[in-house]
Prior knowledge:
The protein is an alpha/beta fold. The protein has helices spanning 51-58, 85-91, 113-125, 129-142, 148-152, 161-173, 191-208, 219-225, 243-248, 253-260, 300-304, and strands at 7-20, 23-36, 40-44, 66-75, 78-79, 96-99, 179-183, 211-216, 228-233, 236-242, 310-313, 316-318. It contains eleven helices and twelve strands.
Amino acid sequence: MIPSDDLLIVGNDLKIYFYTYDGVAKAVDGINFTVKRGESFGLIGETGCGKSVTAMAIMGLIDHPGKIVSGEIIYQGENLLEKSEKEMQKIRGKSMSMIFQDPMSCLDPVFTIGHQMIESVRIHQKVGEKEAMKQAIHMIEEVQVPDPHNIMGRYAHELSGGMQQRIVIAMALIHHPQLVIADEPTTALDVTIQAQILRLIRELRLKFNTSMILISHDLGVVHKSCDRMGILYAGNLMEICDKQRLFSNPLHPYTKGLLGAIPKIKEDREKLSVIRGSLPDIKNLAPGCRFEPRCTNSVSRCKKEKPPLSEIEPGHWVACYHLN
């Protein structure tokens, strides 16, 4: 068991449904997770599995037709789901922040970079404009953007994608938050820039002792940046453990399939494994395991009962009835 003092955030039986004309989409359907202070936790899964919805729930940004049906999100001992919008506004941006995959979605095109950063500092820290500008310039230097005074007077569209993302990182970390959520932060960037951004996030997170939830579909990205990983599939967590064990001894059939599909550089050509089928329709889910229709280890029980996430060995949690 992890001592409660070491836990920054805990998700208990979190369920997030979207009520559409076509039916109820169970985007997140009863997940449990923890993130320790100073830890980097990776949330991995295919598109549509519920990763970003989980992040938006933590930030208090689930809008109609979405609804948090049940569960708790305990952050520093308090349930965020019981907070009012006014209370959440004080937490967002200061105590916890988010780095989005598209920087232009969080940079206002009609205000300069300096205006946006200074306004954020003044709102959350109640300081004067001179001090806010000093902090903004210092943070731009921290994300290794040259000529920060010049950048303060520029607009988002005048910057490259990589520089835009660096500014977003600066804005997310300027208040030294306890938690930062990075939602596919390098998806829209070139491969060489991706590596630079990931290294920058890792260095600044360690420098400020900030916990992080990194959301990605790329196991390689998460392996370099995270301490522990959670594998999400169709709104359910399939496996949680530290990254060493996940890569050396994966237990869930889905995790094994994901790792088997990663290309490896070898002298002999090796055929990549394929996970047959596709994600289930979350508006029409069967009662059993979400992965059962695609699983090669399936037994009759898997069709009828959803396996709970159980601790197979210390720190290694798996939701499966038939491990081999």
